[in-house]
Amino acid sequence: MAAATSSSPISVHDFTVKDARGNEVDQSIYKGKVLLIVNVASQCGLTNSNYTELAQLYHKYKDHGFEILAFPCNQFGNQEPGSNEEIVQFACTRFKAEYPIFDKVSTFSLFLGVLTPGFSLNQLSFRGCIRFSQDASKSR
């Protein structure tokens, strides 16, 4: 993951990252959108509910400037051992994931919401929340 050189504060939009197919993606393409940056795993105890809820959330808000950026991670209990190709196949086939899935990362951040100035999460109507796996919540 590379940050652009700039004298202004660094934001998520200053980075270029690889997607799951190895293509460089300049995160500035998401400027002006509400982002939910989330780490995902295919063998977590909450995989089914998390991927289902992410798909529902994306489907509901994708046309309103909302984007989910999914970063697979195998750090939490080895719950994402698959290759990038296997991860994309799993998420897109089983859960109809339409949001971008990026290269597997190594991180201890569970998720980061980057909001457009003036936008509040209260503007989104959540019927429930996306739960964390027990292993992941212990590593915070």
From TrEMBL:
GO terms for cellular component: cytosol. Keywords: Oxidoreductase, Peroxidase. It holds the Pfam family GSHPx. Belongs to the glutathione peroxidase family. The gene is BnaA01g37280D. The keyword Oxidoreductase applies. This is Glutathione peroxidase. InterPro entries: Glutathione_peroxidase, GPX_AS, GPX_CS, Thioredoxin-like_sf. GO terms for molecular function: peroxidase activity. It comes from the Eukaryota. The lineage of its organism: Eukaryota, Viridiplantae, Streptophyta, Embryophyta, Tracheophyta. It comes from Brassica napus (Rape). Transmembrane segments: none annotated. GO terms for biological process: response to oxidative stress. PANTHER family: GLUTATHIONE PEROXIDASE (PTHR11592).
